[in-house]
Write a structure and sequence with these properties.
Elements lengths: L1 E4 L10 H7 L13 H19 L6 E7 L7 E3 L5 E10 L6 E2 L5 E4 L6 E4 L12 E8 L10 H16 L13 H8 L13
Antiparallel strand pairs: 1-2, 2-8, 3-7, 4-5, 4-8, 6-7
Length: about 200
């Protein structure tokens, strides 16, 4: 399986001014924006870390999920939540044309932690040997920073501040997540059941 992020979070979507206030950096000077590139880098790193830890896309973008076999013949879980729409489902076959599956053949099951594509009939289309199923979907709380839950936004700012304050320390981003962001993220993590599979 492979998850490909097809659209990126723009710089303008990240809360640089809010992060500057969070860090209590001085304002009103001619060089106020001098550190913006550094602040953006820390915000992006923190966003990636929080999203990886929770399995949640904080800002909405488009993903492509490629699998070589269905998790279950009648359903396929998606690795990121919350999912707002499935844009397409395509079956690829070596040496043959790709087949775009009729959207009426499946539906999205919305779920806080485990969204799924579910067959409207007995099963999802067969994936041929050597072929893949490619699901393109949109996931995230919203396009604007303010659309995301307040506690997750706070966790991103806290972790970005940790990265910023330790940016000169080699390997600072490889350590265990600080207790504050980790505690916030805990309630957003999915509960794994049945050996990691959802029923």
């Amino acid at each position: 399986m492979m998850l490909i992020e097809q659209t990126q979070v723009s710089d303008t979507a990240l809360p640089v001014a809010e992060f500057r206030d969070h860090l209590q950096l001085g304002t009103g000077f001619a060089d106020d924006g001098l550190q913006d590139a550094v602040l953006l880098a820390q915000l992006r790193a923190a966003l990636v870390a929080i999203e990886a830890d929770t399995g949640k896309a904080i800002l909405t973008r488009t993903y492509q999920y490629v699998v070589t076999a269905w998790w279950d013949p009648s359903r396929q879980s998606l690795p990121v939540a919350p999912v707002s729409a499935v844009q397409s489902l395509t079956i690829t076959n070596l040496g043959a044309d790709d087949t775009v599956v009729d959207p009426n053949a499946y539906r999205l099951k919305r779920d806080t932690h485990a969204p799924m594509v579910i067959a409207n009939g007995w099963s999802l289309p067969t994936i041929p040997v050597g072929g893949t199923a490619e699901i393109v979907f949109e996931a995230g709380y919203g396009a604007a920073w303010g659309d995301a839950p307040a506690d997750l936004r706070q966790a991103v700012l806290m972790l970005a501040a940790h990265f910023y304050e330790n940016r000169a320390v080699a390997g600072a981003r490889t350590h265990v997540m600080p207790a504050g962001p980790a505690a916030i993220c805990a309630r957003h993590k999915p509960i794994r059941l049945s050996g990691g599979r959802w029923s």
